[in-house]
Amino acid sequence: MNKYKILALGLLFDTIGYISFIIPGIGEFSDIVWAPLSGWIMTKLYKGKPGNIAGVISFIEEVMPGLDVIPTFTLMWLYTYVFSGKKNKVA
């Protein structure tokens, strides 16, 4: 998959994670469903040990109240394609 498609998906998934701020009360309940799903999606977008670690971090970030402001998918994309120096790592 193209790295920019992964970025677009990551932005979409980070936006979905922000839903709990839009709907007070109900939104935090939605994290019960979204937290494990976001962790699983992260492991599918980024393979290997980095993807597994990011999946756990994504799960924890979504399940903990108030931490939804952290754009985990975008940060993982930056780590993978900008900071680690990989040109086009395929998921």
Automatic annotation (TrEMBL):
<protein>
    <submittedName>
        <fullName>Uncharacterized protein</fullName>
    </submittedName>
</protein>
